[in-house]
Design a protein that fits this description.
With about 140 residues, the protein is an all-alpha fold. It is built from 4 helices and no strands. Helix 1 runs antiparallel to helix 2, helix 1 packs across helix 3 and helix 1 packs antiparallel against helix 4. The two termini are about 30 Å apart.
């Protein structure tokens, strides 16, 4: 019997896989609700039908690109790309938040809480997943 070094990869992290799946569910739900609210928002504030149909896709596309860049910038520790990604992410969340809150049927605390939930849930779930990925990366390096 020979002693060869083990090159086994770390065991799969089931909690990270579950967190990825939950983040995907939040993202799909937030995208659906935010799309409807964003389209209504754009129509209400002067956009034509075509523009109103595209507006939420632009906002969600910005959020998606910023999220990917934040994950990539986390790998490189690149300060320049990181602040641009955070600015893009904040702008996307802010626009989505405005559109969702404007869709509230009444301006009371409960209606605003329901309307604001999708972009805030997306923001928090992405950040929690980002932390979990960083933690997993640090564990595999050790």
């Amino acid at each position: 019997m020979t002693n060869t070094p083990s090159t086994a990869s770390p065991a799969p992290d089931r909690s990270l896989h579950l967190q990825c799946a939950c983040t995907l569910l939040v993202a799909v739900g937030a995208a659906y609700v935010s799309y409807r609210h964003g389209r209504e928002f754009a129509l209400r504030f002067g956009a034509d039908e075509t523009t109103a149909t595209l507006w939420p896709l632009i906002v969600d596309g910005l959020l998606t690109m910023a999220t990917i860049e934040l994950w990539k910038a986390g790998h490189r520790h690149c300060a320049t790309g990181r602040w641009k990604a955070w600015l893009s992410f904040a702008l996307g969340i802010g626009l989505s938040l405005c559109a969702n809150i404007a869709s509230a049927p009444e301006l009371n605390a409960f209606s605003i809480a329901v309307a604001a939930c999708p972009p805030l849930a997306l923001l928090l779930s992405v950040e929690l997943l980002n932390q979990a990925i960083k933690r997993r990366r640090a564990e595999t390096v050790r």
